[in-house]
């Protein structure tokens, strides 16, 4: 029974699954997990799930890490170390550490929770909120947890409304008129429609609410099943749909909008094209994702950097940026920048041109270089005069005749340090 004047989030643990590589981001995840990838000029992808939890009133969080976790762990230590244990609040990092057996890492999303049952027990929580750490959105989790309690569900699943064609790439749900889930289908060829809207389908966001005692029992039972993949979407959720009460929660009911007519913004930036587009969208006059909203801020590690500086004012050598985001510590020296996003401590040199470019921290753009529709990884030194993505850019091939820079299906070019080294070897 709820205690008077007690928010449900006070009794909830946010458990963030942040161990995946995100291989569709290609070389951007060569040295870091997908949740640790930079986004939006200052933040990392994982900051959105953590900020949603914090803004919702959750002060107990745990992050399960696995693949190349150093960058992610260091970011959380630097940017999320403000919790105070004496106030019964914390953010714990739970790396895969062979806690069950010497040869067993996290083998599935559910297993990542199972292996930490003893730690979760020590938190004394009543509800557990399972979150993916690799999506961009703003959401008030209190609304979803309240629906879970009010409907007396065994699990409540956060759901997006997508077209039936889009739904073929998701785990989708068929529901009755009370939004109780009657079937859960993984990437179906013929997705079911929604009540009252047969052309739309409910797709899983990978967000789940459980009462901890209930989930704990399920996880222990699942642990002993040799046929199980120990995965929420593949094993735990289908079991509850068939044997218990699974409730669908519509994201549109709890998403945080900066204006009433704004869409319910949610992005999976899991491909180079989607990542580039979501960053470039922030340069719009009124972007759907509002990073300036102080009522629902996105918390992160904030470096101490000086203001951005723009220098030179000669024809053809004028430091300026139009419809762009330029972060602190940048020096724009005689460079033309259009519809681009620059992270901190980027330096550009005279006569360079950036158009629809996403430049990660600490890059140096060489004199007279021209980059169009590009993503440049952290710390890359762009050589003088290099042209990539422009109409007159040459084809950059290695000694075997293979492309040096990765180009996505959507025409976005990814540039990393090893690629530049390979390019220099051909000069």
From TrEMBL:
It comes from the Bacteria. Its EC number is 2.7.7.27. It catalyses: alpha-D-glucose 1-phosphate + ATP + H(+) = ADP-alpha-D-glucose + diphosphate. Residues 306-415 form the Glucose-1-phosphate adenylyltransferase/Bifunctional protein GlmU-like C-terminal hexapeptide domain. Keywords: ATP-binding, Carbohydrate metabolism, Glycogen biosynthesis, Glycogen metabolism, Nucleotide-binding, Nucleotidyltransferase, Transferase. It holds the Pfam family NTP_transferase. It is an enzyme of class 2 (transferase). Alpha-D-glucose 1-phosphate binds at residues 106, 171, 186-187, 204. The keyword Nucleotidyltransferase applies. InterPro entries: ADP-Glc_PPase, ADP_Glu_pyroP_CS, GlgC_bac, GlmU/GlgC-like_hexapep, NTP_transferase_dom, Nucleotide-diphossugar_trans, Trimer_LpxA-like_sf. GO terms for molecular function: ATP binding; glucose-1-phosphate adenylyltransferase activity. The record marks 66, 105 as: Could play a key role in the communication between the regulatory and the substrate sites. HAMAP family: GlgC (MF_00624). PANTHER family: GLUCOSE-1-PHOSPHATE ADENYLYLTRANSFERASE, GLUCOSE-1-PHOSPHATE ADENYLYLTRANSFERASE-RELATED. Belongs to the bacterial/plant glucose-1-phosphate adenylyltransferase family. Homotetramer. This is Glucose-1-phosphate adenylyltransferase. It comes from Palleronia pontilimi. The lineage of its organism: Bacteria, Pseudomonadati, Pseudomonadota, Alphaproteobacteria, Rhodobacterales.
């Amino acid at each position: 029974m709820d205690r008077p004047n007690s928010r449900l989030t006070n009794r909830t643990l946010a458990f963030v699954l942040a161990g995946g590589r995100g291989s569709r981001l290609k070389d951007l995840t060569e040295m870091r997990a997908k949740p640790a990838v930079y986004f939006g000029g200052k933040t990392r992808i994982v900051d959105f799930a953590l900020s949603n939890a914090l803004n919702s009133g959750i002060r107990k969080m745990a992050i399960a890490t696995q693949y190349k976790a150093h960058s992610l762990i260091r970011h959380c230590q630097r940017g999320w170390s403000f919790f105070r244990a004496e106030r019964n609040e914390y953010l714990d990092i739970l790396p895969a550490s062979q806690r069950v057996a010497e040869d067993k890492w996290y083998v599935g999303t559910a297993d990542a929770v199972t292996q930490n049952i003893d730690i979760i027990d020590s938190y004394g929580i009543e509800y557990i909120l399972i979150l993916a750490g690799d999506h961009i959105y703003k959401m008030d989790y209190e609304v979803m947890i309240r629906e879970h309690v009010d409907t007396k569900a065994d699990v409540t699943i956060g759901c997006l409304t997508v077209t039936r064609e889009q739904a073929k790439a998701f785990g989708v749900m068929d529901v009755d008129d009370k939004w109780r889930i009657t079937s859960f289908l993984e990437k179906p060829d013929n997705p079911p429609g929604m009540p009252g809207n047969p052309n739309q389908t409910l797709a899983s966001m990978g967000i789940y609410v459980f009462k901890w005692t209930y989930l704990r029992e399920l996880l222990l039972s699942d642990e002993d099943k040799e046929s199980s993949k120990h995965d929420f979407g593949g094993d735990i959720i289908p079991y509850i749909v068939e044997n218990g009460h699974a409730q669908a929660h519509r994201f549109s009911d709890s998403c945080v909008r900066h204006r009433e007519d704004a869409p319910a913004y949610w992005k999976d930036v899991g491909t180079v094209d989607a990542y580039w587009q979501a960053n470039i969208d922030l340069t719009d006059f009124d972007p759907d994702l509002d990073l300036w909203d102080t009522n629902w801020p996105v918390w992160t590690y904030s470096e101490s950097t000086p203001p951005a500086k723009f220098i030179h004012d000669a024809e053809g050598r004028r430091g300026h940026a139009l419809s762009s985001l330029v972060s602190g510590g940048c020096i724009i020296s005689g460079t033309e920048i259009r519809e681009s996003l620059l992270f901190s401590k980027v330096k550009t040199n005279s006569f360079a041109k950036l158009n629809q470019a996403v430049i990660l921290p600490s890059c140096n753009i060489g004199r007279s270089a021209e980059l169009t529709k590009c993503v440049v990884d952290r710390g890359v030194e762009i050589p003088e005069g290099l042209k990539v993505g422009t109409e007159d850019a040459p084809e950059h091939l290695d000694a075997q005749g293979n492309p040096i820079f990765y180009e996505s299906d959507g025409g976005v070019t990814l540039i990393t340090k090893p690629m530049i080294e390979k390019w220099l070897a051909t000069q």
